[in-house]
Amino acid sequence: MFDRIIDVLIDIKLKTNCFVLISGPPSCGKSSIAIKHANSIVNVDKNLASNILLAEFDVGRLLAGKKPLLVENYDLLEGLLCEIKTQCNKSKDEGLFILTTRQIVDDSIKMFPLSLYESEESNGLISLLALYENPDMNISDFSSNLGIKDLIDACCRGGFPKAFVNENFMKRYIENLINLHDDLKDIKKLKSILKVYSRNISTNISNVEILNQVQRDFPTMSKSTFYRYLNALKDLWIVFEIESWNVNLRARSAIKKTSKKEFIDPSISPFILNLNSEMLIYDLETFQKFFENLCIRDLMVYTSFRNGKIYYYEDRYGLSIDCILQLDNEDYALIQFELSRLTFDEAAGKLLKMDKLIERKIGDGEINIKRPKFLAIITSIGFSYVRSDGVKVIPICILR
């Protein structure tokens, strides 16, 4: 069993809350980590019809196990959360229930597939959260353990725990999605949408253009069907969107607003496009987009303790920032994802230009935000250091 970064957070929450809610995509490991903290289990999804009948007559009996009681997929049974809250209000005790769901819930502990650190492929020599506390900490000359082929292998395998023991996991995972949501009825339609999404991963393509591309491959796809499928994939956390950073740096018309498209795990794109690591080692331009998806997954994991949020920025003047990573206290960092050192100078130039723009807008009183805690280029392999212009260079295989 893999150690997960949110394990400590679950323990803390159980000591201060009556119930703890863990949300995340299918097969990311919610059950495995929740079981570590539970003394009994009820899975609503198993024997669902029987559980629905039992809940009608005696819902409390479903929740009679030894506490903490793990209630998996609680949201499949209408009214169960109300009963849990009622029991919590009556008892006033902490740590009675652990709930899991595949739905996106704002106030939940959000769980993602394994990061490189959790799968023990990143050595974790640099703590991302520690950089926010101490941006001047020494990061010089920490070296990654992986080569570029190792990193591509890790990306294609992905971070779903079962993928480490089953090489056919992703095939079964995609085919099983139609069993997890009522709006996913046709595997061919599902794959057609995933294929176009994969071709445009880590770009801010509009949903209208995605639909246009889907219709080239699948002419009978209607607009209403497309959006039902897309919303179902969002509900299941398979796809998610990174919003544009909503800060008044330019005129509204100058800033691109369409969201950047990502998968919850970088392994989905290469699988859908029938690409493997042997192919991608000779097509690093394509891998760059998958690499960005991998980095975003890992950054979300590493900042989950502080409810990290990711935005991007792009304006019509050519200034673009891959990632604005913001914590719950509104501290943030500006980050570029660069596979190769050949693009470091251009990436650093954008980061510094953005920093200057923010500094000027703050000084003019046009915006009321903090300055970025640090500027960083997250790269593939090699060693970490600080450039002469102050921009940090950190391989993803060093972070935790």
Main sheet?
Answer: 6 strands, mixed
Span between N and C termini? 18 Å
Task: Please tell me what the overall shape is.
Answer: globular
How much beta, percentage-wise? 5-15%
Question: Which strand order do you get reading across the main beta sheet?
Answer: 8-9-10-11-13-12
CA gyration radius, whole angstroms = 22 Å
Q: Which class do the helix and strand fractions yield?
A: alpha/beta
- Helix share bin: 25-40%
Number of helices, counting only DSSP H or I runs of 4 residues or more? 14
How many strands appear in the DSSP assignment?
A: 13
**Ranges with pLDDT <50 over ≥5 residues?**
none
Helix-strand pattern: HEHEHEHEEHHHHHHEEHHHEEEHEEE
Nearest-integer average pLDDT: 93
Question: Please, could you describe this protein's structure?
Answer:
This protein has helices at residues 7-16, 30-35, 48-62, 80-91, 128-133, 148-157, 169-176, 187-199, 207-217, 223-235, 268-272, 277-280, 284-302, 344-363, and strands spanning 19-23, 40-43, 69-72, 97-101, 109-110, 239-242, 260-263, 309-314, 320-326, 332-338, 375-379, 385-386, 392-395. The protein is an alpha/beta fold and 400 residues long. Helix 8 (187-199) packs across helix 9 (207-217).
Annotate the secondary structure layout:
Layout: H1 7-16, E1 19-23, H2 30-35, E2 40-43, H3 48-62, E3 69-72, H4 80-91, E4 97-101, E5 109-110, H5 128-133, H6 148-157, H7 169-176, H8 187-199, H9 207-217, H10 223-235, E6 239-242, E7 260-263, H11 268-272, H12 277-280, H13 284-302, E8 309-314, E9 320-326, E10 332-338, H14 344-363, E11 375-379, E12 385-386, E13 392-395
Parallel strand pairs: 1-4, 1-5, 2-3, 3-4, 10-11, 11-13
Antiparallel strand pairs: 6-7, 8-9, 9-10, 12-13
Helix pairs in contact: 8-9
